[in-house]
């Protein structure tokens, strides 16, 4: 087998692993957003604000620490979490305005968690 074929085989293995990781990330994000939608319904049902700056700051600090432990750039982790937080808040605002979907399992219930 030539060096080029060896490299292509190794590259294909890495890419297959990357594809698997990407699929897992998408499924994890979907599950995370199902949970945050339920939080949005609960907040809206109890008149709580869509954003929770204290919780967000705690989460950013926690994820930066986890990123360092995992040898991932903490700045990247913070940027990623900030992106997710903005999207969650947008969903919570829609739910509070009455434009959001009911969280899974919340049919007929006034709250969900």
From TrEMBL:
What does the record give as EC number?
A: 5.4.99.5
Pfam families hit by this protein: CM_2
Give the GO biological process terms. chorismate metabolic process; salicylic acid biosynthetic process
Look up the coiled coil feature and give its residue ranges.
none
Swiss-Prot/TrEMBL keywords: Isomerase
Keyword check for Isomerase: yes
**Can you give the residue ranges of the Chorismate mutase domain?**
5-96
Q: Which PROSITE patterns match?
A: CHORISMATE_MUT_2
Where on the tree of life does the source sit, at the highest rank? Bacteria
| Keyword Isomerase attached | yes
GO function terms (MF aspect): chorismate mutase activity
Q: Which InterPro entries match?
A: Chorismate_II_sf, Chorismate_mutase-related, CM_bact, CM_dom_sf, CM_II_prokaryot
What name does UniProt use for this protein? chorismate mutase
Organism lineage string = Bacteria, Pseudomonadati, Pseudomonadota, Alphaproteobacteria, Hyphomicrobiales
